[in-house]
Amino acid sequence: MAKQKSAPASTSAGGAKPRVREGRNGRPERDALSIPAATIDQADAPSAEPKRDGSLSKKEYEKELQRLNIELVKWEEWIKARGLKVVALFEGRDAAGKGGAIKRIMEPLNPRFARIVALPAPTERERTQWYFQRYVVHLPAAGEIALFDRSWYNRAGVERVMGFCSDAEFREFLRSGPEFERMLVRSGIILIKYWFSVSDAEQERRFQERLASPTKRWKLSPMDVESRAKWLDYSKAKDEMFSHTDIKQAPWWVVRSDDKKRARLNVITHLLSLIPYEDLTPEPIVLPPRQKDTGYVRPPMSDQTFIPEPY
Fold first, then answer.
1. Residues 217-230 as b or e (16 or more Cβ within 10 Å = b)
2. Domains of the chain in sequence order
3. Which of 97, 136, 170, 287 has the highest CB neighbour count under 10 A?
4. 87: helix, strand or coil
5. Per-residue pLDDT band at 1 (split at 50, 70, 90)
6. pTM assigned to the model
7. How many CA atoms lie within 13 A of 305 on its CB side?
8. Would you give the end-to-end CA distance of the chain in angstroms?
């Protein structure tokens, strides 16, 4: 069967052009969080997000997500066939939508070759290791995809703001982090870094929604609540982190995430666009006939233990 090039459709949004700020490497940086401190309370102003022509309906969202799911399967098959090694980092403020995006990316993928890396706080032993050591063991082999739900950038974010690392450790991370990532890229790893940008007002709304939901309340930790009081500190930490780690070999890609549905579709579309792939869908499979009954008598069903069936 001839291989067909797969070209995911791009998603663009019209409307007002957001304010642009130049990053360290000269590329424009657009981020609702990168605003002067004097206007921090206006982070959810219309200029932070381009205007949309109406909201995305559930039907439209699910239809497009289904199309992208098919593309993700082709994308993963290409990665397996070519022995590529893919690492995608998902960073951003609490309740920015990282977990939801990762979940939608993973849903159609084969968990034998794609996995989520979401590490807990480091143990006492891990605190004595080289900082990047506990992340290195989760890097992919050939044909694998690792999606990091937060990553080594904890040092530049929560650890920096909440005082879990010293100033010397933070400064060392800003020096060694880019070199670590360049080393990964030279080794053949495709490194992709996403920052999910959420406004102050939308984060507040999501926090309140979690507090009111018994199935989402677990997502709010004491650290998340305390982070609300340090919004400006996180903004400063993020801006300093970007100025040192937005490198040519592994740039930061900012995802506007006030609209969760659009953010998920946009990040999947962008992820697919970064690794050109071909359609390796195999020829249709014909199932063989089932083995003929030769008179084998199976044990009675009553010998087996079944789960209760309340429904």
1. eebbeeebeebeee
2. 4-12+20-37+54-291 (3.40.50.300)
3. 97
4. strand
5. very low
6. 0.81
7. 0
8. 46
